[in-house]
Design goal:
This protein has 334 residues and is an alpha/beta fold. 29% of the residues lie in helices and 24% in strands. The longest helix is centred in the first third of the chain and has 23 residues.
């Protein structure tokens, strides 16, 4: 009994010590998660190297899916992302390589007894197409599929919560198409515990100080917020642009984002083909990144004609050196 008592007391001491260390030195606190996971980065024609387009953005442990091509649910399992945290899906346009995976994934969600509503943001025609499929293949789902109709040709906020806002990026393609811009919300400053204790700041003032207020002592002395807190990390942003004709008009909207995904279906030698099919070349994607002053570019939506994507990467890097290739199961912190 005595041994158990001391063991419990020791563990409690360690927990309290670590908590105090975290509060005293908040600079060691980890940034909130903002992580992009690539499930598929191929174009319309299936290949053995790439899956159809789909991505999942993990923002503070909330999962947001962007496009859902055929085979997405298998890739989702391979990624080891938790199905239960995926509640919002954004569909850029209604070409099959961007949405054929939806009905299968929804059916699977029903079989694993999901109960949380699933929200889908897409052109209004998707709901018209999917309602009969849901009624036929997915009767008795234990959750609701909630469709949010969006107008791809308008720039507007389509989702907003305490962590992030999502707005549409009008693109130019053969069908009404939009990208999506994810902007993280700022988090409050980190308090410096030693200074809070030194100035005897009452508990009810802590949140106000985290949000930028100064503290006024009983004798009227004003303690500036900069003495009581450490600034939080700047909010991050991610822009997704696929599929689209070369479109410099988007550069103002995506100016300065931390990471830009831009389709690069073709090499510049196929520029005429890109124009006809309303896609972009790797060079054009890099030019958009450069004029938009983004921090990093990721290219994807690769044509099946290329056996090696490195040629696309090399072309983009000539214009924008900080470019990387999308690839299945790639996970990158933004």
């Amino acid at each position: 009994m005595t041994g158990r008592f001391y063991q419990t007391a020791y563990l409690n001491f360690i927990i309290l010590y670590l908590l105090a260390l975290h509060l005293t030195f908040p600079i060691f606190a980890h940034m909130e998660k903002f992580e992009l996971n690539i499930l598929g980065c191929g174009s319309a024609l299936p290949t053995m190297r790439h899956n159809a387009t789909s991505q999942v953005l993990n923002i503070r442990e909330k999962l947001f899916m962007i496009d859902c091509g055929e085979g997405t649910q298998v890739q989702l399992r391979r990624s080891r992302l938790k199905f239960s945290r995926l509640n919002h899906i954004f569909i850029s346009h209604l070409h099959g390589d961007h949405c054929f995976g939806l009905i299968g994934m929804i059916s699977t969600f029903g079989m694993i007894e999901r109960t949380a509503d699933l929200h889908i943001y897409a052109h209004a025609d998707l709901q018209k197409l999917m309602r009969p499929q849901l009624d036929f293949f997915c009767k008795g789902l234990p959750f609701d599929v909630v469709f949010h109709d969006i107008n791809p040709v308008e720039r507007t906020v389509v989702y907003d919560d305490r962590s992030v806002s999502v707005e549409t990026i009008p693109l130019k393609h053969r069908l009404p198409t939009c990208g999506f811009l994810f902007r993280e919300k700022p988090v409050p400053n980190h308090i410096i515990r030693d200074m809070i204790d030194f100035y005897k700041v009452p508990l009810f003032m802590i949140n106000r100080i985290k949000n930028g207020e100064d503290f006024v002592c009983d004798d009227g002395t004003v303690i500036p917020n900069s003495k009581l807190t450490i600034p939080s990390d700047p909010p991050r942003s991610y822009a997704y642009c696929s599929d689209t004709l070369y479109n410099p008009e988007i550069s103002e909207q995506i100016k300065g984002v931390d990471l830009l995904f831009h389709e690069a279906t073709f090499l510049e030698t196929e520029k005429a083909r890109a124009k006809v099919t309303m896609h972009s070349t790797a060079r054009q994607a890099a030019e958009i990144a450069k004029m938009s002053d983004v921090k990093k570019l990721m290219i994807g939506h690769f044509s099946a004609r290329y056996d090696d994507d490195l040629c696309l990467l090399a072309e983009a890097k000539e214009i924008f050196p900080d470019t990387i290739l999308a690839n299945e199961n790639l996970s990158i912190n933004v």
